[in-house]
Write a structure and sequence with these properties.
Blueprint (H helix, E strand, L loop, with lengths): L5 H7 L1 E5 L3 H12 L5 E6 L11 H7 L18 E4 L3 E5 L4 E4 L4 E3 L2 E4 L3 E3 L13 E2 L4 H11 L5 E4 L3 H12 L5 E4 L11 H13 L3 E4 L3 E6 L5 E6 L4 E3 L2 E4 L3 E3 L28 E3 L10 H15 L14 E5 L2 E7 L7 E8 L2 E8 L2 E8 L5 H9 L20 E3 L5 E3 L12
Helix pairs in contact: 2-7, 3-4, 3-5
The protein binds flavin-adenine dinucleotide.
């Protein structure tokens, strides 16, 4: 890709975005807002108008949810050449083109890679090729699961993270009782501590789900058509299945970058400006593997676009580890670390029918879990993000509030006055 000379690039340049979803569209919108009036091409391999992924389990449960409900930027509002339903298959940097599966070549001076991730089916014999095994990442997955679940007697979900439990919730709502296999000893192991996760597990069990925790799928039994009829776990248990939902991980969509010279360690390797290793190439969203959540894909799309327009914008997000969980009307939020390591101080309490946990390091909050009542989440996020030391506040942690950080100016106005840290102790 050519090097871009700021002003003429902004008016005459050609930018190609691969990936017509959250990061790509937010990037496109930001490019136009920032004054890029050159040619913009957006390539997306899915045959649908762009849609939100978080409600995919609703698609499983209820069928098609109207596209109007999408929180993505409206496709029609973005002035671009749209190439939907066709995959980018190769980046040829010598010719400065992106090649498409239909043989077309899309020329560009700069490229934004926003191709996200795909479900990764565990590498167990027969699982990847079976027609009754699906991930839950795309609308086509949701449609296939909905269709097959309706007539499936035994449904097994591999993975008890957010996506696996989203699927389990939808399947339960369809009147089925799935079995969920998870390698970790708790559910939601990447989102919450064991105490907070156990509340959800009890609810899922009440709803008819059963769990196999600390277990791995080791083998399969398949019928003559290649469909999986049973999964064998590492303790020898056999689980009959007519539908398997694999929610045990993802892999970045980077196949089209093979031999392009764009470095990919795991996802696309980027610096703090989201620039990839090749000039004029940027990446944003899940494909960078910097994060896997909606708000960060938005921020990355926008930051990459700013940088492409010559406005240096660092992407640094202290909340890469922010999680929200909401099942059965119970909301939990975790920010930062949710299990203490050596040298951390941990404060836990049952709070107003819920649960609260704060972890500090040298008096500075580094992690919080709120379950049930999350009204203080803004307060804790502020302290964690700004690394504010609370050691000198002589109060129980549950009573600390923004008021403890304000004094008064001589003219009576509030003034921010974080207490000096002279006491590394931490009181519960
Ligand atoms: C079921 C589910 C539930 C979720 N729930 C939440 C939630 O509650 N909260 C939250 O914060 N996040 C949630 N997420 C995560 C969130 O949706 C993602 O972080 C976000 O979608 C990432 O956006 P992206 O644009 O980077 O990637 P994606 O949304 O994955 O989009 C990438 C697009 O690029 C396309 N593509 C890939 N390769 C090519 C190619 N070679 N050529 C052309 N197109 C290509 C893909 O088909 C896809 O359309 C959820 C995700 C899933 C799957």
């Amino acid at each position: 890709m050519k090097s871009r000379n700021s002003d003429s690039f902004k008016t005459n340049g050609r930018i190609v975005i691969v990936g017509a979803s959250l990061a790509g569209l937010r990037g496109a919108e930001a490019l136009r807002k920032e004054g890029f009036t050159g040619h913009l091409t957006i390539i997306g391999d899915e045959p649908y108008e762009p849609y939100d992924r978080p409600p995919l389990s609703k698609q499983v449960q209820k069928g098609w949810v109207k596209a109007d409900h999408t929180k993505l930027p409206r496709m029609r509002a973005i002035d671009a050449e749209w190439r939907l339903g066709v995959a980018a298959t190769r980046l040829d940097r010598t010719k400065e083109v992106v090649q498409l599966a239909n043989g077309d070549e899309v020329p560009g001076d700069a490229l934004l890679i926003a191709t996200g991730v795909r479900s990764s089916i565990p590498p167990v014999h027969g699982l990847r090729d079976a027609e009754n095994v699906h991930g839950l990442h795309d609308l086509s997955d949701a449609k296939a699961i909905r269709e097959k679940a309706a007539n499936a007697d035994n449904i097994v979900i591999i993975g008890a993270g957010l996506v696996g439990l989203d699927a389990a919730y939808a399947i339960v709502e369809m009147g089925k009782k799935p079995v969920i296999v998870e390698m970790a000893d708790t559910i939601l192991a990447a989102n919450l501590d064991a105490r907070a996760a156990s509340v959800y597990m009890a609810k899922f069990e009440e709803a008819g789900c059963s769990f196999r925790l600390g277990r791995r799928v080791d083998g399969t039994e398949c019928d003559a058509s290649g469909a999986v009829t049973a999964l064998t776990l590492d303790d020898g248990e056999q689980l009959p299945c007519s539908l398997v939902i694999a929610a045990a991980g993802v892999r970045p969509s980077i196949e089209f970058l093979k031999n392009s010279g764009v470095a990919c360690e795991q996802g696309v390797t980027v610096n703090e400006y989201l620039a990839a290793s090749a000039a004029g190439v940027y990446a944003a969203g899940d494909v960078t593997l910097l994060s896997g959540i909606w708000p960060n894909a938005v921020k990355q799309g926008e930051a990459a676009a700013m940088n492409m327009c010559g406005v240096p914008t660092v992407y640094g997000d202290a909340f890469a580890l922010k999680n929200t969980v909401n099942f059965f009307g119970i909301v939990s939020l975790s920010v930062g670390r949710f299990t203490a390591s050596d040298g951390d101080v941990e404060y836990c309490r049952e709070a107003r029918g819920g649960y609260e946990k704060v972890i500090t390091r040298d008096g500075v909050p580094v992690g919080v879990i709120l379950q049930g009542d999350i009204s203080r989440s803004g307060f804790w996020q502020y302290l964690i993000k700004n690394k504010i030391n609370i050691a000198a506040i002589r109060k129980p942690v549950r009573k600390i509030s923004f008021a403890d950080f304000y004094g008064f100016e001589a003219n009576g106005e509030y003034k921010w006055a974080a207490p000096a840290c002279n006491n590394p102790g931490f009181r519960s």
